[in-house]
């Protein structure tokens, strides 16, 4: 199996099938991580596709002259990331859904992020209304008791697949001309391009949650499935808060990463 995959190997492997040219054994990057990256490249280049079985641990061990423990660690890292799935008695396969990886340090809108990944973003507005906010939303946006907000509830799509639900609140005072049509598909584009405002930074929290029956139906996932719950407040350079958003992303399709510098 492995030899047939190497016949259709990624471009940086096209000139050789020698093990020592595929991996840098002098690199400080661990061998298991290099194997992990190699398997991910096979998936990204469509040499391995959803549902395909990957080479066995023994094949990878013999071909790349590494220990079985090294190969197993690489595979388990990909299993834990949701990229591979192990089926007892059968082997390891490419998961049906490849997780979308989002860096927590970036402040991009959903549509901007999907386009950069080569995916087609989409949204479906479930509700657009003008209302008095909850005390929590009012506090985050620094509103007076009588101030109203636009409440926008949307399903976020990636290549026509529902992967999240977003509920956004924007002060009517700041965006008096906002309409349902203008809010779709990208609020950030509306804020920055049409309103001429520059979003400077955001404060964000992330926690685990479980899907409700209503959310499960919208996202087309089983009841009780795990979600990633993100609460974010966006600010202008002046420090004025202009958007409060609650997002619920499918944990089987989304993961968040962050680079941590050592102090």
Notes on the protein architecture:
The chain has 263 residues and is an alpha+beta fold. It has two domains: 2-94, Arc Repressor Mutant, subunit A (Orthogonal Bundle), CATH 1.10.10; 100-257, Chorismate lyase-like (Chorismate lyase, 3-Layer(aba) Sandwich), CATH 3.40.1410. It has ten helices and ten strands. Strands 4-5-6-9-8-7 form a six-stranded antiparallel β-sheet. A two-stranded antiparallel sheet has the order 1-2. A two-stranded parallel ribbon has the order 3-10.
Characteristic terms for this protein:
263 residues; alpha+beta; Arc Repressor Mutant, subunit A; 2 domains; two-stranded antiparallel sheet; 10 strands; elongated; DNA-binding; transcription
Task: List the total number of helices.
Answer: 10
Strand content: 25-35%
Strand order of the largest sheet: 4-5-6-9-8-7
End-to-end Cα distance, whole Å, is 45 Å
Percent of residues in helical segments? 25-40%
N-to-C series of helices and strands: HHHHHEEEHEHEEHHEHEEE
Question: How many domains would you count in the coordinates?
Answer: 2
Derived structural class: alpha+beta
- In total, the number of strands is 10
What Rg is obtained from the alpha carbons, in whole angstroms? Answer: 23 Å
Spatial shape? elongated
| CATH homologous superfamily identity of the largest domain | Chorismate lyase-like
CATH topology of the largest domain: Chorismate lyase
Main sheet record: 6 strands, antiparallel
Low-confidence stretches: 6-20
Known CATH architecture of the largest domain: 3-Layer(aba) Sandwich
- CATH level 1 name of the largest domain: Alpha Beta
């Amino acid at each position: 199996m492995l030899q047939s995959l190497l016949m259709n190997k990624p471009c940086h492997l096209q000139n050789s099938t020698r093990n020592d040219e595929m991996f840098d054994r002098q690199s400080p990057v661990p061998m298991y991580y290099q194997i992990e990256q190699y398997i991910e490249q096979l998936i990204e280049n469509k040499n391995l596709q959803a549902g395909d079985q990957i080479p066995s641990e023994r094949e990878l061990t013999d071909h790349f002259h590494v220990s079985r423990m090294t190969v197993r660690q690489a595979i388990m890292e990909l299993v834990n990331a949701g990229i591979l799935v192990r089926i007892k008695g059968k082997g390891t396969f490419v998961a049906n859904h490849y997780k979308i990886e989002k860096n927590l340090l970036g402040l991009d809108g959903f549509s901007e992020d999907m386009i950069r990944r080569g995916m087609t973003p989409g949204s479906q507005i479930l509700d657009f209304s003008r209302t008095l906010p909850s005390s929590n939303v009012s506090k985050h946006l620094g509103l007076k008791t009588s101030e109203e907000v636009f409440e926008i509830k949307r399903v976020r799509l990636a290549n026509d697949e529902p992967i999240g639900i977003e509920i956004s609140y924007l002060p009517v005072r700041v965006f008096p001309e906002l309409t349902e049509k203008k809010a779709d598909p990208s609020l950030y584009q509306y804020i920055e391009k049409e309103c001429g405002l520059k979003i400077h930074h955001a404060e964000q929290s992330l926690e685990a949650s479980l899907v409700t029956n209503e959310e499960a139906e919208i996202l087309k996932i089983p009841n009780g499935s795990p979600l990633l719950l993100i609460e974010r407040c966006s600010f202008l350079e002046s420090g004025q808060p202009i958007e409060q958003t609650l997002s619920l992303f499918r944990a089987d399709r989304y993961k968040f990463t962050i680079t941590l510098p050592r102090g």
